[in-house]
């Protein structure tokens, strides 16, 4: 499941496994056990600090933070040990998740404990929600203490005990002013224990290789991923965006001007145009570019893009937005889709089930250098040339530019950091001197932003 490591639940209706398991047997004759996993969320699942690390050591634990991820590990261990009792095959376990769930799947690959045989990573590799050091989490921990009115002059251990004893509702409420961004997001902690070493930056995925125990990987993204964080950047104007980019600490010399040029960012853009430019920039920077890196490094991967426009009448109608793919895979809302999209939903469910059961959902990238593209009416396998509007040439130009400057793929990491700052306000979040308090913004219309419904593209042609 998704939820930025803060929201949602394995028991949420959208993740009701009974629907997909019924589909697996009755529609496709591929009987499949579907398991949804709950794990600790928010600061209860991810907060870290030196005080917490010392506290954990008293109980024989070296790591800190990542408690929700360790919950997942225990669930996977339990599943592998006991699934045969339910008629399952412990040698054929597929982990799949979207957004924070995709990040989780990537982390479990990196841990190298063979708890599954295949993985589907939907909209999120490891750095998506950020990877924070213990030192960065310390800033958040200290701000949590202030938000909960825990006196600064108390001994550190007594402060921690006050935090542990604080009512759950108060701790949850404190996340809002402390974590800054309108869509509160927490991160895995790079504690050196969870994955046994440093977690990778996006540019380092050029060296990513599938482990011997999990060769089957599906990975993909959706067309309008960064609508999920639209409240964080929708007040940006052309001038404020360009100022931010030009002042941003790029590691790649000339990187700011290169990004401005590649994305055709101009100081006379309207607020509406600026909004959609940022959405595309951040969808690329946080999702699509790194997927492209991973697929080229591991061509046996099954790669996809989801371009199906939402049929629902809301602010995101007409967009293939973040998390929408869950509706089509899990099938719970299939009856609310128009007939041609019901067909797409059925095809997606079958593809996910086929992959989980060791079959080909479509052609792997290596065979014809194609991506599976889920459209409004069908599945199409497209080469990079056939799918050129996606932006592959732009992303490769970033790679070439950094190499020419002698900094390798640094511009890829710069793009990620810029987008992370636009969407999750990382610098403000981890700045010990910044004030806590959420920037409140209004509806899209307050900034002259128009709903982008693609002329109601979801209607049947």
From TrEMBL:
Segments forming domain Carboxylesterase type B: 2-382
The entry's keywords: Hydrolase
EC number(s) from the headed UniProt entry: 3.1.1.-
Hydrolase as UniProt keyword: yes
Pfam family, one: COesterase
GO molecular-function terms, A-Z: hydrolase activity
Similarity annotation: Belongs to the type-B carboxylesterase/lipase family.
UniProt-recorded name of the protein: Carboxylic ester hydrolase
